[in-house]
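Re: that chain you flagged

S.,

Sorry for the slow reply, it's been a week of failed gels. I finally had a moment to sit down with the sequence you sent. For the record, here it is as I used it:
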Amino acid sequence: MRVAFVTEQTVFDDATEGRERLHRIATQLADRGHDVTVFCTRWWPDHDEFEARDGVTYRAVTDTKATPSFLARTPFLLARYRPDVIHAAPDPPKAVAAAGLGGTLARAPLVVEWFGDEDVPDSRWTRRAARKPATVVTPSELVRTAVREIGASTDNTRVIPESIDASLVADTEPDSDADIVYARDLDSDANVETLLLGLAELRQRDWSATIIGEGPQREAYERQAADLRIDDRVSFVGDLPREERVAVYKGAHTFVHTAYTENFATELLWALACGCVGIVQYQAESSAHELIEQYPRSFRVSDDEGITEAIEDAGRYERLDADSELAATYDHDEIIERYLDLYRDLQAEHGVF
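Prediction finished late last night. Pasting the structure tokens below so you have them in one place:
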């Protein structure tokens, strides 16, 4: 299958979560033998029109970021490539229209990947980008609802969650340093203070906690842990590579998610696959609760007192170092197959922008 990705900026320019997801989809399709070309602004150092990386071909639409030229050239480059499917990012929204015109010329359906972290204005082009594609894919119902509010419909939206590496979970040895884990960028939305307040109520219990992540609020959280007199049992370990995170999760008993915002709770998913009991504080702008709605080893709470009670109640669940069934459900191979099923469905319907 020939798949064209359209994204003015890539992970090589600025690695947002949405761009990382699009990059992962492209490379996994290439790993399966599909012909994948990404139409983007040139990010490589020489002036060649093409660059190959991890089986994916990158096609320079423009040499530098120049949105009007990018929009003007994209449809004709897509028509020349003649893809079976076009998969576009909605940032900027007009790029969806350009990709759609290219799809009309090439007779290829258009999929838009809407992660939720795109910097898009409230405009008619944004509403058109949500309304016109054959399918808009989101990582969660939270983002799907947001896209529907700006013009998408139930029929042209589909949720495909993030994916994990089940083999990495199976092959990694546990690190037994922590009982309770939190992991996220430590920014203004992290809300680690709620977890720390909950842990402070358990001073008389025997526990240890690990906070994974870097960000502008780290020092404030470390001061709060000291003020609560629990800093001797809470370790702030900074950012960790995936392999080390998996080892920590496999050795821990409980993962707590309290962040105010989350388009998809990827770290929670990894932790559940590593056998952790999940505790999620409900937040209106977070999708984390979606992962545990049907998951038995979990608790949904509303405040720090609820976190304290949930940590205590979690003790009734035995320690596990993996949930193989969950890991298999969200494995990279399973999730990329859902994209391929979508592509095949659209081809069968002859959907065109």
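What I noticed first: The first strand starts at residue 2 and ends at 6.

Talk soon,
D.
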